[in-house]
Amino acid sequence: MGRKFSRILIALLIALQVSVSWAEEPLQEQTTPTQPITENSEGATGIPTPTLQNILDRLTSRSFDEKEAAIRELANQDNPRVIALLNALMNRELVHNRKDNSIVLGSKKDGQWELRDPETTQLIGQVDSRAARPVIINNRLRTVINNQLALAALNDPESDVRYRAANQLIGNDDPEMLTALASRRAQEADPRVAVQIDTALNIAALRSDDLSTRLSAIDTLAGNLHPDVKNAFNERLRVTQHPTEKKALEKAIARIEARIERFQTADTVFFGLSLGSVLLLAAIGLAITFGVMGVINMAHGELIMLGAYTTYVVQQLLPTSHEWSLLIAIPAAFLVSAFVGILIERFVIRFLYGRPLETLLATFGVSLILQQAVRVIFSPLNRTVITPEWMSGALEINPVFSLTYNRLYIIFFALAVFLALLTLLKKTRLGLQVRAVSQNRATARSLGIRSERVNALTFGLGSGIAGVAGVALAQLTNVGPNLGQSYIIDSFMVVVFGGVGNLWGTLTAAFSLGIANKLLEPMAGAVLAKIVVLVFIILFIQRKPRGLFPQRGRAAEE
Amino acid sequence: MRDSTFKSAFSDRAAKTFMGVLFGATLLVTILNQLFPADSALHVSAYTVTLLGKYLCYALLALALDLVWGYCGILSLGHGAFFALGGYAMGMYLMRQIGDRGVYGNPDLPDFMVFLNWSELPWYWQGFDQFWFAALMILLVPGLLAFVFGWLAFRSRVTGVYLSIITQALTYALMLAFFRNELGFGGNNGLTDFKDLLGFSLQSDTTRVGLLMATAVALAGAFVLCRWITGSKLGRVVLAVRDAESRARFVGYRTEHYKLWIFTLSAILAGIAGALYVPQVGIINPGEFSPLNSIELVVWVAVGGRATLYGAVIGAILVNYGKTVFTGIMPEAWLFALGGLFVAVTVFLPHGLVGLVSENWEKIKARLNRNNKPSGSAGPAEGDLS
Fold it and tell me: Closest to B335 (Cβ–Cβ): which among A362, A372, A538?
């Protein structure tokens, strides 16, 4: 357990380091003719120009074999333009200029070809769309190009580029590739890349003629989760005659399958935690208004929805800065929802203290009004909130198990909000007053606590947290007028299941319901899982009407 | 003793007025629809007949809720579920009556089952081609669900808000379940395309009028039944349970039995309302289970006034009439109006419209200068009903 945890931690650190460099990655791939001029001067130094152009011109041939030979030769050139040219070939941007029968870079512009010199990327001129056509490649050539690109990338200074290059070469048994991999392995410093290269080399070794080489390859690969490893094992199992090898293969495959199953369970648990954190965020505000104040706020879901719409509006107001607009959206959503919450408390709930059923009805009315208001203002259609770069993508632990960043962040965020709230209630003066008023209003008042003000603030706090939950939810689902409605019953279930007035109970209930839901899903399907959980809670409340962690003492007797 | 006879006299008077208005309106609509030709100015269209029938079904449903909420203090946010179950039972019967007149012309299976490639009728559809069986199910299914649910809930003393929320979860879970095709109730589309009921075509005006009359009779019957129950000794105990459950228990009453009995009866009434509703609107789908429907129902009762029975009927008809009018003129405003109604009624009109009238009865009387009996205290009990 401890080892796995530390491995995850290390992976996390590496991923954080790497994710920075990923942001620049796409630029390298899309090397288009409109590249900055600075590269020209570099590209032209010291290389005999005619050679490159000569190789390229061989691509005018109709024979794919000839083209393949040309591509291989091109890849072997020690020229910084090679990668850009191979990419251009893949993207159909290397064109055959019929006028002088040469190969140049070309891009379509207003129905014409804009031709550029392949080496200097200088503009040659524009020709009619029929005067040139892209070099045709087939799937075989695409594989060759990809392999050549990967081979080139294998020596890239960025370890992440190398990692993906090695990954691409797994399963390849071209001797040229294997030599390149082996020579790279000797000088590879990054352990992640080294593991990938080892996998590639060992898969190739499975096809070796020497039994002991094969056996040791099987031994090293056992438990490796790369999909190609399992395929290679199965393939080998069909071919081999040797009983020892057969046994070793079967054992290795069983081990891989067991590991895959374990990681799939981990994946389900992760999704359960993610659902749990969403439930926690949605329910924790309710735990305050319902649990601490005893007020049933059916408009709670709509306060979440307001938070989500605030996120949307903030993004619309700051169209250029999606990366950090979330940081503004969180306090903004808190303030908007808290403000609306205080209005609800002042104008509706204040008159209904001590009459929970009436409060339930009145706040339900408020929720209808808020929903309809949003429908009128923003249209009934869903709005999409753009996920910032740093929240998209996934932390890949291994090929079968990866953690998506947005869910990961939301889990941490939910816990942070929970801790902040807990601290607020236990350590601050306001928290003390809130607890005092919730335990015994009359005594609290006689001790000089302004209970009216405390009520309004508490309600504002619970509502504000609903708004913050909305910010998180906007990252996971579409923002629409019904967003809140779909969470309100679930959040009530969480609060009631955990025990009213107990924040820790809410935490436990949220995560256990989240995980239970996700564990049931593969067995019963999403809807049925939800029904099963609902029925379970209904039955549970019958057994323990006060939830998992009931309040004790006089306060519970209300 | 004198006081109670006085009150019951007043009550009888109220009941008589209620019945008079109900049957008067129904008969009037019937006569106007049947005896006057379609081009006459006095003719009432079949649409209006059905609309009135629908309102009366809602009224019956509201009456059922008033019985548990107004008199027993159980705020059920899941009464729509019993209504929908009754409706589904009736829908299944109507579905079987289609026979081979469906789109696929299959004499054994309803259209949606043919569509889903089912080869035979599921066991729970057996018997629904008989009206008596369907009628029995209309009473039994909601009744049994309420009985089991209530037995579990009341025995473990789940009360107040908790009960409200789990009833809401109940109807929500049922809604999710009925949305599934695999359950065999038509999934998303529900049951529709009905042809006839007991051999009468559902399209004909006569059947519509007949259904309206049947609904009126059912409503009147339920009203009398509820009136009788609330006036009986049992009704007194139920009131005691509402106002001080612990005391009633300490005095020696098994409060959970009383609650269970009232809850089950109310669910059966709701089921009947649903069963009468379905042939009139011609469709039943899982949307009827939605928590919003159940909670809307609560506001009908709240608007009319709790614990009066006729208040619930008045509330249901008024709010639904408002809904029809509003959604016709400006559909966007309806939810604002409904939401506002929720807030306004709970904050300003805790006893509903009936309460408003009876509290101000003296003033109104003076103003109208009519010679009428004073209103006594027939309104809902003072204090909180939570």
Answer: A372
Task: Quote the ipTM score.
Answer: 0.79
For the cut 80, the answer to whether the pLDDT of residue B362 exceeds it is no
Tokens of residue B261, six digits: 């009995």
pTM, two decimal places: 0.73
Largest CA distance in chain A: 98
A496 pLDDT more than 70: yes
- Looking only at the bridges linking them, the beta strands covering A401-404 and B191-192 are unpaired
Number of domains in chain A: 3
As a whole number, mean pLDDT of residues B366-383 equals: 52
Cα gap B312→B322, rounded to integer Å: 15
For testing contact with chain B, the best of A360, A372, A378, A539 (most B CBs within 10 A): A360
What pLDDT, on a 0 to 100 scale, did the predictor assign at position B81? 93
- Which of chain A's residues have a Cβ under 8 Å away from the Cβ of B259? none
B224 occurs within a structural domain:
yes
Least confident of B84-93, B114-123, B217-226: B114-123
B385 touches chain A (CB under 8 A): yes
Torsion angle of C-alpha atoms A435, A439, A442, A446, degrees rounded to 10: -40
Is B259's pLDDT higher than 70? yes
Residues A519, A406, single domain; the answer is yes
Q: Residues A326, A475: one domain?
A: yes
Residues 265-294 of B with CB under 8 A from A: 291
- Chosen for mutation from A346, A364, A548 (greatest number of chain B CBs closer than 10 Å) is A364
Total tally of structural domains belonging to chain B: 1
Residues A357 and A494 in one domain: yes
Let me know: does A197 contact A220? Beta carbons within 8 Å.
no
- A322 and A467 in a single domain? The answer is yes
Query: What whole-number distance in Å separates Cα of residue B171 and Cα of residue B159?
Result: 17
Mean pLDDT (chain A) is: 78
Residue A226 lies in domain: 154-241
List, as one string, the DSSP characters of A479-520.
Answer: B-TTTTHHHHHHHHHHHHHH-TT-HHHHHHHHHHHHHHHHHH
Adjacent-strand bridge partners of A94? A105
- Tell me what pLDDT residue B63 has: 92
**A-interface mutation test, from B75, B77, B147, B158, most A Cβ less than 10 A away:** B158
Q: Does A524 touch chain B (CB under 8 A)?
A: no
Tell me, yes or no, whether B368 lies in a domain: no
Is residue A12 included in any domain, yes or no?
no
| A189 touching chain B per CB within 8 A | no
- Lowest-confidence region among A505-519, B38-52, B86-100, B236-250: B38-52
A552 — pLDDT class (breaks 50, 70, 90): low
Phi, psi for A105 (deg, rounded to 5):
-80, 140
- Residue A250 maps to a domain: no
| Alpha carbon distances (Å) from A310 to A75, A125, A284, A343, B179 | 52, 51, 19, 17, 32
Interval B134-177: pLDDT, tens: 899 999 999 999 999 888 888 877 777 778 888 888 898 889 88
Domain that holds residue B261: 2-291
The pair of structure tokens assigned to B238 is 């139920």
In a domain, B26, yes or no: yes
Instruction: Map residue A125 onto helix, strand or coil.
Output: strand
Residue B336 in any domain: the answer is: no
